[in-house]
Amino acid sequence: MIDVIEILKECGALLEGHFLLSSGKHSNKYCQCAKLLQYPDKAEKVISLVYEKVKSLNLDVIVGPAMGGITAAYELGRQLGIKTIFTERENNVMTLRRGFEIQPGDRVLIMEDVVTTGKSSMETAKVLEEA
């Protein structure tokens, strides 16, 4: 079994102290996933747990909200062997750019690195529904 906590500690991603989250809540721990995602071998192991949960969903596209979700989405898409795209903010509005497309009926999963308020994920879902 993969010990995610140990992997997060090894790469300095699991921080302890006092943190004010973007939700306004306080926490004594914070996961800085960018620290994990800088090590492809460690990210592969951790994200393989997500892969196991979603592999039977017959997905067509993984979408990662910028910035944090891009690398995590890419790794999950790599493991699933499917198209991976991302949304990004333009003039502070989440958008689908760079010629990225989804098709009607595509089965899409939004992959984030960290979710606090869910704002980026919800904005991404709206963009995808409109597309």
Description:
By secondary structure, this protein is of the alpha/beta class. It is 40% helix and 24% strand. It has helices at 4-10, 33-37, 40-54, 68-80, 119-130, and strands at residues 14-20, 26-31, 61-65, 83-90, 93-95, 108-110. The protein has a 4-stranded mixed β-sheet, sandwiched between helices. A two-stranded antiparallel ribbon has the order 1-2.
List the defining traits of the structure above.
131 residues, alpha/beta, four-stranded mixed sheet, two-stranded antiparallel ribbon
Q: What structural category arises from helix and sheet content?
A: alpha/beta
Strand order of the largest sheet: 5-4-3-6
Chain oligomer state: single chain
Number of helices: 5
Mean pLDDT metric: 94
Residue share in β-strands: 15-25%
Low-confidence stretches: none
Helix content, binned percent:
25-40%
The H/E string reads HEEHHEHEEEH
Tell me the major beta sheet.
4 strands, mixed
State the distance separating the first and last CA atoms. 39 Å
Measured on Cα atoms, how large is the radius of gyration? 15 Å
> What is the general shape?
globular
| Total E-strand runs | 6
Secondary-structure topology with pairs:
Layout: H1 4-10, E1 14-20, E2 26-31, H2 33-37, H3 40-54, E3 61-65, H4 68-80, E4 83-90, E5 93-95, E6 108-110, H5 119-130
Parallel strand pairs: 3-4, 3-6
Antiparallel strand pairs: 1-2, 4-5
Brief account:
The protein has 131 residues and is of the alpha/beta class.
